[in-house]
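Margin note: ligand = nicotinamide-adenine-dinucleotide.
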Amino acid sequence: MSAVNDALIRDVVADVLARLGGAPTASPSVPAPKTDCGCGGKGAAGSTTALRGKFGVFSDANEACAAAHEAFLQLQKAGVAARAKIVEIVKTMAEAKAEPWGKLELDETKIGRLDHKIEKLKIIKLVPGVEWLRPDARSGDHGITLEEYTPFGVVGAVTPSTHSIPTLSGNIVNICAAGNAVVFNPHPSAARCAAVAVRAYNEAIFRETGIENIATIIEKPSMESFAAMCKHEAVRILLVTGGPGVVKAAMQTGKRAICAGPGNPPVYVDDTACMTRAAKAIIQGASYDNNLLCIGEKEIFALEGIADKLMAQMEQHGAVKLTNAQLDALTKAAFTIKPGEGGGCAHASVNKDFIGKDPIVLAKAAGISIPSGTQLLFAETGADHPFVVEEQMMPFVPITRVKNLAEGVKRSLDAEHGYKHTSIIHSHDLEALTEMGRALDTTLFIKNGPCMSGLGLGGEGYLSFSIATPTGEGVSNPRTFTRVRRCVMVDNLKIY
Ligand code: NAD
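Resulting structure:
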């Protein structure tokens, strides 16, 4: 540890002297790989020393990829203990820096809530680490076979504006626990805070392990830097977390893409549910970080016999109901309705100024004043209302009455758009639970709880902020970023 510290000081001094003398910078403490990394990108071969001293933050996408590749080779040599150390550093630092980083992210993005931005960093410790990678073993008359979960190399990752540092931190834990390095092309409107976290992680990881650039970031991300990252030879697989645009773009790169895509989670509530519990769960989930979560409750279908009871419970637990006129005013402000082409259906698009904003901003647009501390607004709407159809990411939920289970399931299916992301039910009718689960076919299916119980927060399971939906890997974990390799020993090895 102190040797590494000494080396770090030596490097800084060497770097300053080199800069003063106009010579290229060098970082003697981190050994350069013995051979050319072969990734072929600009800055990859013959210039490894130029990649040092940046602690993961690069203006050039090719350099970010080459530096991550060099770090991957170092991590390979350093072994599982170094992976575990990286995981520990990221988890500890995310918790320790939760308040300043949460504030930094909110200041930059201006979406969501500070208390939840902080909480999302504090819970990074719930993301699984190296312990997740137990090999599968077989033993029999013909010897022993081990199937090991081994790294790919460098993962190219894209992060959303809705949870920039939390997604990045959870991704580093998963990806590095599996022995890989990672390059991030973050969302442009949440890139500055992401770079601060990447630099801090790298400084700590370098101090403890001597490995620099295990997670790199493109400082000013763009479509061009995304393309360069995807094209780089060292980047073996992609992990994208975002909406339909980036999922489509990633799938067109020709590389294997793990896609954590969009959602629009429906909630069905029937007459066997506990109304108090359902109302409280809906408020908790839909108001979380002002409904920025991809798993967050976005529209409610309530059986007509209990819809009034559910709404009364929601009001009793602090949600504010809008009248039809107030709903109309909010809808006009929160959506732009474009007429359909060639006489087709009109299309609503979400007004970005309202995404992730506080309830008070929505209430103002609706022309209503609300008690301070109000977490969620709601109103009764039809099933084809823009608030039902679009992934709106605002602290507002529409509630639509349905006649029976069949209609509730059909409406939920329509609203989910086949994203196969998340659906929720409040019911104690076993048939309804099974029917909805089968029909919706979503990656997360939550019964009688708020959305976050699907990520191990109040429900059983583990956490990740990247839930691979269209590509089917599910809630990502270290194993998601591994290649399965079989090692066979043929002999009479039985000890029994
Ligand atoms: P977004 O789609 O606007 O951006 C996500 C990322 O993709 C950003 O880094 C952005 O720069 C990049 N991007 C967008 N279009 C691109 C293109 N054509 N080519 C290359 N890169 C492109 O999403 P956002 O608003 O930041 O995040 C919200 C969306 O992400 C929602 O749809 C939400 O459901 C989804 N999301 C999903 C998960 C999940 O785990 N499945 C997690 C968080 C967010």
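The radius of gyration is 25 Å.
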